Amino acid sequence: MFTRYDLMGYGFGLSAVLILMGFGVSLPQLLLVFFLIVTATRVYGQRKGGADGRGNGRRDAGRGDAGLADGRGDHDSRGVR
């Protein structure tokens, strides 16, 4: 199933291809631009973490030691104040 970032990539890629076609860019370059944009938005979606739960997400980064500061509960990576 497509994630929203896949669909965003296709939309951005198609828009860029149509704009570049107006300037007379060749077909291999248009395909390269399209696939680069689609790949970049997919990677962004995986890093950010989409609605389907893929990716580790920035908000989960650095929480491997959460709650180990003093054992008094679930603390984030900043520790206990």
How would you describe this protein?
- The protein is mainly α and 81 residues long.
- It has a domain at 4-48.
- It contains two helices and no strands.
- It has helices at residues 4-22, 27-48.
- The longest helix has 22 residues, at 27-48.
- The model has no long low-confidence stretch (mean pLDDT 78).
Biggest β-sheet description: none
Distance between the termini: 43 Å
What's the total count of β strands?
A: 0
Structural category is: mainly alpha
List key phrases describing it.
81 residues, 2 helices, single chain, mainly alpha, elongated
Furnish the topology, listing elements before pairings:
Layout: H1 4-22, H2 27-48
Helix pairs in contact: 1-2
What is the gist of this entry?
The chain is mainly alpha-helical and 81 residues long.
